[in-house]
């Protein structure tokens, strides 16, 4: 006696793999655009706060400086969160705008000084503090780490 398969028409519900090109492209573009904006906001806001702290008597808080710092931090959070969509954004943003200038600054500081001179004075002052204190390379490595972690998590699924 032979029996036929009772569920031959049954097709398992397997999700079709979606293309990753569009998320990678948009994540990469957003990472490259938002990261320098965030770093610029943090640099300028930090400079303003530093100038206020260095004043002999600080009688008020600089609300625009605090807003710039908060805005820059939130934008960096957005770049890191792009890793949920595609790790390209945090990886590119961290490498291009953090790790690369930080490594160049450590190896050949005169190159970074030439690049900094292209910025407006206030932004140049704030960015130089970030660059030569190691904050820029640290932010870059944190974004790269976020991108790598997102990749590893995605591969484990």
Automatic annotation (TrEMBL):
Record keyword Transmembrane helix present: yes
Superkingdom, taxonomy of origin: Bacteria
Record bears the keyword Membrane: yes
Residues spanning the membrane: 25-45, 65-84, 91-109, 129-153
Keyword terms: Membrane, Transmembrane, Transmembrane helix
Descriptive protein name: Uncharacterized protein
Species per Swiss-Prot/TrEMBL record: Amycolatopsis saalfeldensis
């Amino acid at each position: 006696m032979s029996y036929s398969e009772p569920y031959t028409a049954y097709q398992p519900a397997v999700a079709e793999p979606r293309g990753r090109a569009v998320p990678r492209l948009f994540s990469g573009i957003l990472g490259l655009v938002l990261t320098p904006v965030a770093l610029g906001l943090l640099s300028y806001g930090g400079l303003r706060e530093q100038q206020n702290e260095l004043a002999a008597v600080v009688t008020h808080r600089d609300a625009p400086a605090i807003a710039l710092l908060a805005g820059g931090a939130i934008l960096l959070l957005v770049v890191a969160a792009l890793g949920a969509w595609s790790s390209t954004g945090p990886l590119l943003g961290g490498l291009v705008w953090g790790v690369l200038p930080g490594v160049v600054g450590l190896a050949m500081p005169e190159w970074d000084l030439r690049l900094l001179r292209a910025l407006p004075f206030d932004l140049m002052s704030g960015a130089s503090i970030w660059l030569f204190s190691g904050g820029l390379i640290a932010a870059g490595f944190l974004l790269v780490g976020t991108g790598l972690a997102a990749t590893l998590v995605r591969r484990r699924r």
